[in-house]
Amino acid sequence: MTRVGVNGYGTIGKRVADAVAAQPDMELVGVTKTSPDYGAEAALRRGYDLYAALDDRAAAFEDAGLGVAGTLGDLLDAVDVVVDCAPSGVGERNRPTYEAHDTPAIYQGGEDAAIADASFNARASAEIRDADSLRVVSCNTTGLSRLLAPLDEAYGVEKARVTLVRRGGDPSETDRGPINDVVPDPATVPSHHGPDVNEILPDVSVDTAALKAPVTGMHTHSVNVTLEREPTTAEVRELLRGETRLFLIPEARHRRRRDLKDYASDLGRARGDFWENCVWEESISVEGRDLYLFQNVHQEADVVPENVDAIRELTTDVSREESMARTNEALGVGLDSLLSDGGSPRDQVAADD
Amino acid sequence: MTRVGVNGYGTIGKRVADAVAAQPDMELVGVTKTSPDYGAEAALRRGYDLYAALDDRAAAFEDAGLGVAGTLGDLLDAVDVVVDCAPSGVGERNRPTYEAHDTPAIYQGGEDAAIADASFNARASAEIRDADSLRVVSCNTTGLSRLLAPLDEAYGVEKARVTLVRRGGDPSETDRGPINDVVPDPATVPSHHGPDVNEILPDVSVDTAALKAPVTGMHTHSVNVTLEREPTTAEVRELLRGETRLFLIPEARHRRRRDLKDYASDLGRARGDFWENCVWEESISVEGRDLYLFQNVHQEADVVPENVDAIRELTTDVSREESMARTNEALGVGLDSLLSDGGSPRDQVAADD
Amino acid sequence: MTRVGVNGYGTIGKRVADAVAAQPDMELVGVTKTSPDYGAEAALRRGYDLYAALDDRAAAFEDAGLGVAGTLGDLLDAVDVVVDCAPSGVGERNRPTYEAHDTPAIYQGGEDAAIADASFNARASAEIRDADSLRVVSCNTTGLSRLLAPLDEAYGVEKARVTLVRRGGDPSETDRGPINDVVPDPATVPSHHGPDVNEILPDVSVDTAALKAPVTGMHTHSVNVTLEREPTTAEVRELLRGETRLFLIPEARHRRRRDLKDYASDLGRARGDFWENCVWEESISVEGRDLYLFQNVHQEADVVPENVDAIRELTTDVSREESMARTNEALGVGLDSLLSDGGSPRDQVAADD
Amino acid sequence: MTRVGVNGYGTIGKRVADAVAAQPDMELVGVTKTSPDYGAEAALRRGYDLYAALDDRAAAFEDAGLGVAGTLGDLLDAVDVVVDCAPSGVGERNRPTYEAHDTPAIYQGGEDAAIADASFNARASAEIRDADSLRVVSCNTTGLSRLLAPLDEAYGVEKARVTLVRRGGDPSETDRGPINDVVPDPATVPSHHGPDVNEILPDVSVDTAALKAPVTGMHTHSVNVTLEREPTTAEVRELLRGETRLFLIPEARHRRRRDLKDYASDLGRARGDFWENCVWEESISVEGRDLYLFQNVHQEADVVPENVDAIRELTTDVSREESMARTNEALGVGLDSLLSDGGSPRDQVAADD
């Protein structure tokens, strides 16, 4: 049983906390907050032990009527690994504390790659030995790694070129723009996303261009991969369908006005989270050696199963394959619609339960 | 045990189904769909019995790999009440079928008031006797009724004037606009929302003006009520705080970038649903006899507890008050944040569970 | 001939400059910019003399290839009045400079009312004597003053209650939000807009509530005015139709999907500017003593004719009525569509010119 | 002097009319509308002769107070060429009428390529002989043709891959979505835009993928071109800078929050129209043989100079080069900012006029 602490119960942290709590081989010892706000209240209502992230703020929690079990240091001393879910750049400031407590740490993709012994993606990372820290790559890099790894393994990737149309802000970030504009962000091309992918897949050549759009829900990728071989469209669809961390959105005739998060909610996922990349099945198309497709990445959620696998990577001898299977099982990752074209229903759903 | 059927497992229907299934005194016998699409698949995955809404489409379900337990007629014969959750206007077409099967029916607010024996709001409706059908009023009318009833009871309402800034489409309706525009909708004033409120509160004078905005999440109401008396701002806040179907969003210093649905999700609500009106506590303000406030209404969800209470109204002798208490208990309606100003925490949440 | 300088060639400043240049009794001596950017380039291309707003930046203009005629001080010495169009709050910092040069000044609505001898709206302000400075009220306050003045004069205003749905940012401000949200802004009610109106109409009781929406084009007002008398709807429409600074958008059957700025462009207005309030004619509705209507205010433009009239107010003996007529004539203010209901076409437009 | 008629005074038609009227070698004889609405009023206010597009509606114009000079047939008999600016697909219905009157016709890109003798782009089309009709390609295809032609001429294009992020609706189309979503449109890849480009450049291999975003102003293209040679980034920037129908947006340090249409308005362009592609100069980047860049296309305007050149192509012996020069001169096409990096100011703008 791996004992886990989450430092920073925010957008990512709260999801990682839930995911850890759902693993049979992990125990969520506690989560931290800097202030006694609604996130802190929500953590307590969920039954999580709350720790004050900053020593000098601990009293404020009590004053606000929220009980804490200790401070960050107390939490670090009680866990086998800490998952740092602080805002981008703050992980670097937290690192000395983790090291002082000798606590192995997992960082998020907003930190520089140099912060950890290795960057990590469960599907795509090569074997990692003797690491005391890992950095789970960003939502977009996670999405690209999961897609490019099987393509490179099966066909060889000569060059990947991806346009990322990113959401301007998360649903709860109501003050971020843009309004009524699609903005190159950055204006320079390529953006940093390609080099990020190379932290995971060093031999895959990737160029990325990024735009920001007035949406909040998900990032959308327009993907081109020039392959070394020429598979058929059907072959590529079959290959990707076999990936548990990719969900193929079946063709339009089975779905009308569809919101992916709405679908996820209908299937019982908390917050309508989509941990898998959502690939539009009908967009998968091979022209010569050029593969094209569209995929969506849920920026609040897709890194969550990766964090869970990173915990096992750091603290156990469980194989990558086994870890992914356990994570998928516990969270229900690996959607497969009954209505997919060409897919045989894996579980026949009857009228009665 | 009341046996319930839901005709139309859509945006409202799927939520009503879940709410009914959560009631200890109700049994969800089944739900219907017209086509074997993702909504139908989701119903089956949730363990609900699926019925074909249209007789001549039943075979299509089997062909698509989704088992049905029968047709609408079969469902009607097996229940004590049917909740019609078809698109606006379709309820009228369904009515003859319900009458032919002698099945008491509950309709939604998109139908004309004349469709049912009475319109219904749990908090605000006067006593209803001998009804065989009820019409739960629309999301906006529900929101206004819940607010105006206590105000009228406590102070008397001379005139209410409400500007409704409505969402252009639900999150899953990606083809509806507007983009980058706030549009009077309708251009004529007053809009129909006032008269709708009079179906519930016939003696309250209400004028409404409606706009449509490029948002998907919730409707926002800018409310003015000229009262017959002059309460203080604190008195009004206290009055509204006591209403279980109103949630007072505490003052800004406890909350930063906050998305109400995100908060609801954090508290464990499926789909981030908000069944309560969300009233900005700090907006509640009395100037002379004029009360002002802002409230949000979650159009996909606020009518759901009303439908549950309507079921008891139609099929049992349970008092309105008792029904609301049971519904609230089963669904967790009646949020009260630990961080509210002036509110004492009802349940002290400890650091340990 | 009044010699005018514009300090700050920005969103408002560039429009004021064009408007001044169009007046037969005014001369635009020059405009200022703080940096040699595209606004500065545009001023030069338009033929305006450019002055460096900050002395120590003058050289930067030459380096960038943009010739300047001097600094702010030089401009102040060459004009009879300066129109301060700096960002909100900066006018206060500029004031000492204007006073040091003995230059009468006009400020914008973003400055505190105390900055000037009086606040100003051409239609609604009472007579102003012996002022050396004026403050043209904000876009919203301008829009409300123009509407409430004739109503108060004709019927008496008992109480005005206005919900302002404001644009999140101007079209060129692509980094401002919100996205997908309508946000109370401020969350407290009433907002400051009512008191602003009282700087112009001290005896009119006004309560305002403000929201921010993800749009860029215009602000939308949902207006209620409780009058002291009971005019008919037709009477109110007639009264408002007679106001040159109000444009009544005729009923829907004459217009389909219509963008007001597009319409303004079609009529030859630069930038698609709407100097007039745009009142939806069909929304004008009287219920008892309650008047309701919707109006849009173009935040980039409606204060412009007010600035022109303020110049005459400060520097000449021209009567308010005469000034408004000159301003309207020179700019083409006072739209009257040929397709208005109840309006007789003022100029019969023939097939041939 | 070529006599021109515009059939359909809408979004494109009104701009084509203005552009034709500005040409010294063309005469705009008249424009048509189907109904006496605000567009019709605007045409008359601008001094254009108005014709009823449909014979049986002519009386309605007079009834509405708008004088017409005749019907479509009358206009066709009075012109040397008609520019069809009807909604997509309607041009095909109009064609027989043009042919019956023996009037050479220019169609827009929304019609099938087969409607005309040839598709047309001034910069990129090969020589066209003996045509009686032309089809000006769509806004996106126009934008792509202008960019790919010089690249193919200078370096050879091996493969172009473009992601088009299109606006959901024009500013005046307030009922079109999406809201808060970026939607593959179509979901299949490649989209039709590539084949459209091949109507102009048959030998250039182009794959396109298209998305729809909740914006109204412009389309944004994320472009990759694999070239046959390896120019430097500077060489490509220089090449593109020399194209009159491409505008290079200089680097960010000269511009802050910038709206391109706002900039166009500041430079005196009616409606803030951008006839040129807007290429982000700093996005132009060559990696090996892969060129990347972002460009915006103003969907309401970029086809306008193309229509003017198409008129000369059809009705005169003027060379393509000469026509483009005349069109550019008359409309002011070919923006070149004084603040461009590496560009020498073509016209030194002085402080005085």
UniProtKB/TrEMBL annotation, chains A, B, C, D:
Homotetramer. It comes from the Archaea. It is found in: Cytoplasm. This is Glyceraldehyde-3-phosphate dehydrogenase. D-glyceraldehyde 3-phosphate binds at S138, C139, N140, H193, G194. GO terms for molecular function: glyceraldehyde-3-phosphate dehydrogenase (NAD+) (phosphorylating) activity; glyceraldehyde-3-phosphate dehydrogenase (NADP+) (phosphorylating) activity; NAD binding; NADP binding. Its main location: cytoplasm. SMART domains: Gp_dh_N. It catalyses: D-glyceraldehyde 3-phosphate + phosphate + NADP(+) = (2R)-3-phospho-glyceroyl phosphate + NADPH + H(+); D-glyceraldehyde 3-phosphate + phosphate + NAD(+) = (2R)-3-phospho-glyceroyl phosphate + NADH + H(+). Keywords: Cytoplasm, Glycolysis, NAD, NADP, Oxidoreductase. The lineage of its organism: Archaea, Methanobacteriati, Methanobacteriota, Stenosarchaea group, Halobacteria. GO terms for biological process: glycolytic process. Residues 2-139 form the Glyceraldehyde 3-phosphate dehydrogenase NAD(P) binding domain. NAD(+) binds at T11, I12, G110, R167, Q299. Belongs to the glyceraldehyde-3-phosphate dehydrogenase family. Its EC number is 1.2.1.59. The keyword NAD applies. GO terms for cellular component: cytoplasm. PROSITE patterns: GAPDH.
